[in-house]
Amino acid sequence: MSMEDYDYLFKIVLIGNAGVGKTCLVRRFTQGLFPPGQGATIGVDFMIKTVEIKGVKVKLQIWDTAGQERFRSITQSYYRSANALILTYDITCEDSFRCLPEWLREIEQYANNQVVTILVGNKIDLADKREVHRQRAEEFAEAQSMLYLETSAKESDNVEKLFLDLACELIREA
Ligand code: GDP
Ligand code: MG
């Protein structure tokens, strides 16, 4: 018998280059805040938010990296037991997109085989500075069997949808 107040608990881990907006996405979703100019670290390992999808209570444990985004410094323990990965790049930063294969190698090496991965192109409010075309990213995601979504943590565009879509997918696969 369970006394828990949720039907599912999922661990979601954000990865991707420093500066792409991972912390801002988590902050926007869990606290409804966008802190412009805020530093990278939020001082805790993870944030919790419970969402309800068609009467099903889903508790999301969301892990953010505290400035350890350099490859190989994020260890196996960070990926261990992750149900989902949010692989984030910045649509205004070609370099953050070009690093994605490195991140995919890490996922292959450290994450479990069942992990659900969603590729997120963040900062779509900066459309005039876009360096990565949407179609190119969509094709890349599809070739790697990843979901794809574009977001703005700043304008709260698609942020709720990101986590809800992920929760739906995780329920489906559970
Ligand atoms: P992290 O290193 O991946 O955690 O990135 P941060 O969340 O710390 O964000 C890095 C920088 O990008 C900060 O200056 C944020 O204010 C900015 N930023 C994050 N998300 C967005 C966004 O959606 N739009 C814009 N314009 N800036 C963003
Ligand atoms: Mg950060």
From TrEMBL:
Report how it sits in the membrane: Lipid-anchor
| Pfam families, per the entry | Ras
What cofactor requirement does the entry state? Mg(2+)
As for subcellular location, the record says: Autolysosome membrane; Cytoplasmic vesicle, Autophagosome membrane; Golgi apparatus, cis-Golgi network membrane; Golgi apparatus, trans-Golgi network membrane
Quote the InterPro entries the UniProt record gives. Answer: P-loop_NTPase, Rab, Rab30, Small_GTP-bd, Small_GTPase
Q: What's the domain of life for this entry?
A: Eukaryota
The protein's annotated catalytic reaction(s) are: GTP + H2O = GDP + phosphate + H(+)
> What PROSITE patterns would the database entry show?
RAB, RAS, RHO
EC numbers: 3.6.5.2
Magnesium in keyword set? yes
* Principal location: membrane
Q: Which UniProt keywords apply?
A: Cytoplasm, Cytoplasmic vesicle, Golgi apparatus, GTP-binding, Hydrolase, Lipoprotein, Lysosome, Magnesium, Membrane, Metal-binding, Methylation, Nucleotide-binding, Prenylation
NCBIfam families (alphabetical): small_GTP
Job description of the protein: The small GTPases Rab are key regulators of intracellular membrane trafficking, from the formation of transport vesicles to their fusion with membranes. Rabs cycle between an inactive GDP-bound form and an active GTP-bound form that is able to recruit to membranes different sets of downstream effectors directly responsible for vesicle formation, movement, tethering and fusion. RAB30 is required for maintaining the structural integrity of the Golgi apparatus, possibly by mediating interactions with cytoplasmic scaffolding proteins.
Question: What name has this protein been given in UniProt?
Answer: Ras-related protein Rab-30
Q: Which organism is it from?
A: Culter alburnus (Topmouth culter)
Tell me the lineage of the source organism: Eukaryota, Metazoa, Chordata, Craniata, Vertebrata
